Amino acid sequence: MSIMLIKPLAYMNRSGEIICPIAAREKVEASRVLIVVDDLDLPLGTVRFRPRGGTAGHRGMESIVENLGHGDFARIRLGIGRPEEGSMAESDYVLMPFTENELPLVQKVIDQTVRLAEKVVFEGIIDPITLKISENKEGI
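Now predict its structure.
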């Protein structure tokens, strides 16, 4: 089995313009695509896998669905939380580095997301999963 990892360098809301032509060129069926995105609507430490679904208003996901023509692809959403009301624009918030206090949890989220992605890709997991990771909890 070969695996391709794509990190679009275009604006997030144009992700579909990058990912979809590559998937078509490589003859990868949408059912074999796994998208990993950040999610303002989930708190930091929450990781959610769905085998298919909607965009939940995520502009990058909207671009992928628009370019594919459907939402029949797997996705993992990584919660980053929202900025405090009125403190800054969401676009600025998502580009900010994590704080020193957040970094240990962020590392655990990354580790657990890698394990989850491996299970999805290599074991064919298709059931929705939500992980709530804390600094003192292991996860999967």
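The longest helix spans residues 103-123.
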